[in-house]
User: What shape does this take?
Amino acid sequence: MSDFVSGFWNIYITAISLIGILFCVLLLWRQSTAKSVASGNGSATDNATTGHVWDETLEEYNHPIPNWWRWLFYLTVIYSLVYLAMYPGLGSYKGIYGWTSVNEYQAEQQQAEHDYGPIFEKYRAMDIQAVAASAEGKEMGQRLFMTYCSQCHGSDARGAKGFPNLTDKDWLWGGTAAQIKESITLGRDAMMPAKGLKPDLNSEQITDLANHVRSLSGLANDANRAKRGKELFATACAACHGAEGKGTVGLAPNLSDSTWLYSSAESSIVETITKGRNNRMPAFGEFLGEAKVHLLTAYIVSLGGADSVSGNAATPNGVSPAPTEPAKP
Assistant: This one.
């Protein structure tokens, strides 16, 4: 009720609840005094019916409900009044116990922390490689992954269009355990600027560029267009992707390998260059806490795609540079 600033709603909810209970009481009292409906000649009879007939033979008697049934309803009314006295239900009245769902949630969280906190802390204190090699640690990380990550990256972590594969060696922000943990903790925001909407490039130039990009990966391409695209690439794309299209960790993806986040089809590359791409990896550090992020990192490392050595393109303070482009088109 805290969302309602007017006292009217407090009175309204209280009145609706109590009037509803009072109506039930009156209905039950009316049933307790009801008699069988009079027969056609004006006298009461136990065989009086409502006049409804089914299948030409079945008729419905018009009798009051049995006493045992009526008293069950009375008990329900009594239970309702006791409940409303003890728990919230009448407007802003909090009840004798002062129960709230927030307090119950916090109590459950505290109990869960008491029960499972030591287990998570045990693995948090271990090296990530050691956790990845532990059957129990890997299983715990997998459960976390299935709950929080599989919706985007897939249950097998192989990703989908627009969502990277976590089992290969292609990492835009670096594939060391520390960098993977950083990605999970802080999240990632990526943007590939649109080249065809201002327009920086016309449709013919974009098609030339797309053919050059395909040639970098050894894919089928129009040689003449690819040659013209190479000249455009030096001025339009090399600043981020590098002169040879091999990318920059934390900034732009490698365009010369076989990994494609949005498909290697010419039409898809043209769309990427023309309209740009926006992608986001949400941050889970504050939500999950360090121990669960540690287990998640270990599980991803156990999938085999992570680098076995450190130092793959993190800045001196441990945070990769803000990207301007997502993984490869």
About this structure: Residues 7-86 form one domain. The radius of gyration is 34 Å. Confidence is low (pLDDT under 50) at residues 38-42, 309-327.
